[in-house]
Amino acid sequence: MGFSILNDRVIELEEWITASVCERFEEDGVVVPAGLRNGLFTVGALDNIDHNPSSTTAVGAFHGCGINLFQFPTKANPGETRNPIVLPPKTKQHCLLEGYSVVPAVALAPATICVPKNQNSDFTLRSCLSEENSNEEKWIQHALNLLTKDNLSNADDIVWAAYHASKQLQTEDPPVICALLPLFYEKAATPAMIKHGMDVQRLAIEHVNPGQIPVTTFDQPLFALAKLVQWKWPALSMVSLCMLSCSEACILKWPFGTHWETCWKILVGPQL
Q1: Dist. CA 129–CA 141, nearest whole Å
Q2: Could you give phi then psi for residue 233, rounded to 5 degrees?
Q3: Which of 42, 68, 196, 213 is least enclosed by beta carbons within 10 angstroms?
């Protein structure tokens, strides 16, 4: 014997949740999912979303832009849990904040952009990468030593990824917190959407972790466009941009069930 629920009741609960989430956005004055915590280092990611249903009865597809926010709790700082949404909502009407849902039009002519001078005159790339170069040399020597063996065992980490994974220390920190913001119909690879996405992430990060320098990530094509946007609008110069490789960008598009949020923590963790 099983239990069932009327479809009308399911629709009613969905409407309640949607209205309650929008009420929280109105109270906060910014679009920040209730599942995020206060006081944690937060990183954003913006990319295009393409959903092409394979069903023979499908009549449409979705091509737009999505923004994720990631937080990295630790045993020492698990973060401050925010109040959950309340059901039923005060009103059944629901709509997103206009400052979030409306993407302002912008004009961006690459020929007119002036690249700012580097403020860090004493900056040397070699000094920052010395430790990483040393780790790469250790892996090369490790691989060369294994190549002299007649037979390799499963414990021989000759591959680059396996070697570096074996050197990582095991942590007991809680899993990464991930939240998806409401989707946009606009194409991601446009100056307007890139600028608006950076503004949205900056406001959300300031709300949950005041004083933090906003950090947002893109894949290579969007990163190039984001740099032009950052140079065009100096107010965005304090936003730290990160570029993902093709493999890292694929990790961000994996389904939730494959623990891609853990992979993302491995990628960003050393930068915290």
Answers
A1: 18
A2: -115, 100
A3: 213
Q: Let me know if residue 91 belongs to a domain.
A: yes
pTM for this model (two decimals): 0.74
pLDDT tens string 35-92? 999 999 999 999 998 887 777 777 777 888 999 999 999 999 999 999 998 888 888 7
Residues with Cβ within 8 Å of 19's Cβ and at least 6 positions away in sequence, in order, are 89, 91, 92, 93, 94
Beta bridge partners of 80: 38
Range of the domain at 139: 131-144+156-169
The answer to whether residue 267 scores a pLDDT higher than 70 is no
> Has residue 138 been placed in a domain?
yes
Other C-beta atoms within 10 Å of 32: how many? 23
- Rounded Cα distance between 59 and 53, Å, is 9
Dist. CA 76–CA 80, nearest whole Å: 12
Tens-place pLDDT, residues 150-206: 888 888 888 888 898 888 887 788 899 999 999 999 999 999 999 999 999 999 999
- At position 225, the amino acid (one-letter code) is L
Residue 125 lies in a domain: no
State how far the Cα of 123 lies from the Cα of 121, in Å rounded to an integer: 6
The domain total for the chain is 2
Q: Which residue has the tokens 């952009």?
A: 113
One domain, residues 140 and 79: no
- b/e sequence 195-227, b meaning 16+ C-beta within 10 Å: bbbbbbbbbbbebbbeebebbbbbbeebbebbb
Q: Are residues 161 and 70 in the same domain?
A: no
